[in-house]
Amino acid sequence: MTVRERVQKAGQEQVFKFFDSLSKAEQDKLEADVGSLPIEDLERMFKASQTYEGPDVAGCKAVNADRTGVASKDDGTWFKKGLELVSESKLAVVLLAGGQGTRLGVSYPKGMYNIGLPSGKSLFQIQAERLKRVEALAGKGTIQLYVMTSGPTRAKTEAFFKANNFFGLKACQVRFFNQGTLPCFSFEGKVLLQNKSTVARAPDGNGGIYLGLKNEGIIEDMKAKGITSCHFYCVDNSLVKVADPTFVGFCATLDADCGNKSVVKTIPTESVGVVVQDAQGVHHVVEYSELSTEMAEKRDEDKQLTFRAGNICNHYFTVEFLEKVCSLELPYHVAKKKIPTVNDDGELIKPETPNGIKLEKFIFDVFAFAKKFALLEVDREDEFSPLKNSDKAPRAQNMIQDTLE
């Protein structure tokens, strides 16, 4: 069956609407582009995104770190355990760096952004140097760095690392891999075109990291190197403690296969999800958009928000757990967006209001599969200051240290 026939059977023949007006080269490009889609699965993907129901928030209870899950309670045991993992080269760092710096007002990857330090260092440099600092504290051992990029950021990210001699890391210590993409849909479930010969696509969300780890051989590489544990984090958190020995040691000490850092959410409207536990004892992150006003504003007797374990995309996973979840089908979440596309006349339009949906997978959806889950509460002032907007846009002052204390 040809691509055209498969598309027609799937009810997506609109992608070939302008086919006859294209040159032979453009026709070949479009057929190849459409052929790379999961054509027979498009309808199921769209319907699944429309019918997805998250955890029953009303039936969930708050999960807040108790005295054993607060970073300041470490008597040195967790820190020592974390450094042991490093000294034995059993810890890897996985850096989520697929985002472009659009909201920062730049046309390059976020990790290349100069955040205004006197040193002029980029986020990539600061974080690489923090990784090296942990290696120095351990005295021996190597921390492998796996950098997740996306189609638009891959080449620029690799070139930036190479041009800067990997910021002191060994070239063999750093490996890049891509998250995937998913087609963009109209509200009616029709695949949109970016132009007459190209399908509109978008990165598949930070949850796309799992297929990337599997499809590009990262899991196998970790196993071959004897790595047992990983620290995941987002590049835009300027205060992140890379390969944090306390956090990874805490999770390893509890024999957790999955762990999460949280900060205390103090404002009901803050745009961070919260960690909860459902009636079956399974852990989830409920996005702020899924919390009712009543639940978001609910407070305990001590006046703290009841649902206050704010998720900051800072996670621990064992390689054994990752190998399992990388083969699972995670749910699709819907993001209504303004998607550049072509109108019925083939003219490019840039809508001023949402005209379609992007499908996303969330990295924290694998929490539900963890047999042992660990939650560590850390101080916001020390560990969470994400860069989202440029200096010209309103944002909080970001304080940052050049090295790990």
* Overall pLDDT score: 90
Please identify the top-level CATH class of the domain at 74-258 and 313-368: Alpha Beta
CATH topology of the domain at 74-258 and 313-368: Spore Coat Polysaccharide Biosynthesis Protein SpsA, Chain A
Beta-strand percent range: 15-25%
The structure class reads: alpha+beta
Number of strands: 19
Instruction: Report the sheet with the most strands, covering strand number, pairing sense and barrel closure.
Output: 7 strands, mixed
Give me the number of helical elements. Answer: 12
- Which descriptor suits the 3D outline? globular
Spatial strand order of the main sheet: 4-3-2-10-14-11-19
**Helix share of residues?**
25-40%
Architecture of the domain at 74-258 and 313-368 in CATH? Alpha-Beta Complex
Unreliable stretches (pLDDT < 50, length at least 5) are 392-405
- Rounded to the nearest angstrom, the distance between the terminal CA atoms is 61 Å
**CATH homologous superfamily grouping of the domain at 74-258 and 313-368:** Spore Coat Polysaccharide Biosynthesis Protein SpsA, Chain A
Pathway: Nucleotide-sugar biosynthesis; UDP-N-acetyl-alpha-D-glucosamine biosynthesis; UDP-N-acetyl-alpha-D-glucosamine from N-acetyl-alpha-D-glucosamine 1-phosphate: step 1/1
Protein name: UDP-N-acetylglucosamine diphosphorylase
Catalytic activity: N-acetyl-alpha-D-glucosamine 1-phosphate + UTP + H(+) = UDP-N-acetyl-alpha-D-glucosamine + diphosphate
GO molecular function: UDP-N-acetylglucosamine diphosphorylase activity
